[in-house]
Amino acid sequence: MARPRMTRSERREQLLDVAAAMLVQSGPSGLTMEGLAARAGVSKALPYSHFDNAEGVVAALRARELAAFAEHILVAVEGVDDPNDAIRSAVHAYFDVVTERGHVLRHLTALEPSQDTGAPRASTEFVAELVQRLFGLRRKRARLAAEMIQATLLGGVTSLVHGDASRTVVEEVASVAVLAIVRAAANGGAAIRPPVRRRGGVPGLV
Q1: Which of 29, 106, 142, 146 has its CA 20 to 30 A from that of 123?
Q2: How far apart are CA 38 and CA 9, in angstroms?
Q3: Residue 17 and residue 83: Cα distance in Å, rounded?
Q4: Ordered alpha helix ranges (H), the chain
């Protein structure tokens, strides 16, 4: 029995799935329209009915992956009222994406300077809006927090890649750091106390 014909949207998704596999195997330079058609088992002309060129395929794949990442985060915090729990849920969801889709995102994010760890970097706008929604920060403060949160999470991924700590430890440290960033941004740094001297002159934090 012949297979049912794919709808246009189903075919587009199939082409993006195939493109993701090619990207992992050969990197962006190995992704061509002709190669995509051959790998997907379609005519050479068909990919052009969905994308202008190979760069367009990569852009569409990146948009799809980051949209899925953002949706995963939003689902994770949905209905979570406590800000501490919301942060932990969001951080856990972030590292879920890194674990499940990092092999694809590694090649997509490598197209940007300094983004070579395979970590998904959502737009600053998305993170800022999420911070505003959860904590009620003003726009400029939310953007400041968003930039620092992104750097914190990317640093966590680097630690995982290098084997510096387990995922459980990285998530815990990242959650505490993200919450501290949000609180400091909300209070303009007033929440951070200066170090105090302990016995022996070793500085500590209160």
Answers
A1: 29
A2: 19
A3: 36
A4: 8-26, 33-40, 54-77, 83-109, 124-135, 139-162, 167-187
Question: What are the boundaries of each domain within the chain?
Answer: 10-51, 64-187
Check: CB of residue 107 under 8 Å from CB of residue 24: yes
Tokens standing for residue 4: 């049912």
Contact 105, 65 (CB under 8 A): yes
What pTM, to 2 d.p., does this model score? 0.74
**Distance separating alpha carbons of residues 190 and 168, to the nearest angstrom:** 30
The backbone torsions φ and ψ at residue 90, rounded to the nearest 5 degrees and listed phi first, read: -65, -45
Query: What are the tokens at 94?
Result: 């972030």
List the chain pLDDT tens, one digit each, 206 residues.
Answer: 556 788 999 999 999 999 999 998 988 888 999 999 999 999 999 999 999 999 999 989 988 988 888 899 999 999 998 988 999 999 999 999 988 888 887 777 654 433 444 445 567 888 999 999 889 999 999 999 999 999 999 899 889 888 999 999 999 999 999 999 999 998 875 544 444 445 554 433 33
Residue type, 95: F
Please give the Cα distance from 138 to 83 (Å, whole number): 16
CATH of 10-51, one of 1.10.1020.10, 3.40.50.1110, 1.10.10.60, 3.40.630.30: 1.10.10.60
